[in-house]
Write a structure and sequence with these properties.
Elements lengths: L8 E6 L2 H9 L8 E4 L7 E4 L1 H4 L9 H7 L4 E4 L2 H15 L6 E5 L2 E5 L10 H16 L3 E6 L2 H8 L7 E3 L5 H6 L11 H9 L5 H6 L2 H8 L2 H9 L18 E12 L2 H21 L2 E12 L4 E12 L2 H13 L7 E13 L8 H20 L33
Parallel strand pairs: 2-4, 7-8
Antiparallel strand pairs: 1-6, 1-7, 2-3, 5-6, 9-12, 10-11, 10-12
Amino acid sequence: MNQSPFRRIMHVDMNSFFASVEQQCNPRLRGEPIAVIGSNKRTIITTASYEARAFGIKTGMTVPEAKKLCPHLILVTGDNKKYTDTCAQLVSLYKNYSPAVEVFSVDEAFLDITGSTWLFGGEERMARLIKEEIRERLGLTCSIGIAPNKLLAKLASDWQKPDGLVIIRAEEVTTLLEDLPAKELCGIGPHLEQSLAAMDIKTCGELGRTPSALLRKRFGVIGEKLHFMGLGIDDSPVIPLEEEEEVKSVGHSMTLEKDIWDRNLISLHILQLSEMVGRRLRTYGYQGRTVALTIRYADFTTFTRQRSLKDYIAHSTDIYQSALRSLSSIRLEQAVRLLGVSVSNLCKRAVQLCLFEEEKKKALASQAMDEINGRYGEFTITWGTLLLRYHHSGVISPSWRPEGVNNKG
């Protein structure tokens, strides 16, 4: 694996993003300990303001746990539209500094600045200009890391929070990584950390010195990548939105307010998910032949059943009927905690004339619903059976993008 010594990558990580956006939108929340939560009753802390973090509140805590640490904590139900709109503004801002911008998540982005730093007086001045523009235009702060590759740039952005700027030079990499815990690298989670520790590998230096053949034997195809990660080597490119691989599937999932056994209620949730998936397919001109239903039990056991169809579909009721057939083949062993519906085996939808009156009515109804919901918000108009359902607002998927079929807003 080769890596250019002249390559310079920037990672921009927004500070306490959801909470900071809420504080910026509501001045009464500024300076207060707030936590952003989901919309259902079994919610957890999505993110906390730095004022709340001072009390020890962390992402993933339950509300009761957080309230014990900070009784006067202010809870704010997350608004995904605010966050995705802000992300879109940030991406537009980044493109003024580099044409190569990769959205890593709703609050993170990579920029390949190798060829553009000279336009702004060097990489440090470029970073400070970006930070200043974000603060002035959006009232938000970010931490920025600059390094020879994406792996190290993300590592650098984590070192000074909030509002930090860390630059790693190519000649500094070996020394910086020698005693750095391997878990600090993006992609090494708790389970992988434990597996590496069992091999007496705890630092990046030890990981880089471990033969790739030994790591391949233990971890399979990712073994060689782990070896190079320990050395601080990463040749993965910054992939702009327009160059991302064609989407392979479209799906939605939801954690239910309470575990349920009732198949009629489960079917109602499946209908809602099918409409959400169908609308995205139709909006971006896709259709698919494989419909998958995912179920998670109360004990977190998760499985998927899928059906491949003869014809390509994009209509919500067709997706729903296929998912229902999968449900009918399942003998529920526990109450259901989470449901998901997805469509894969996709192709771009060709314009087809509806030969039968019933098909024409169905297509026109979908078109009218899509136009209204696109203008006024999802589920402004919906199927009669869903009228009693609230619009479930889940967390933002890691696959979310500010444009295209992965925009789930």
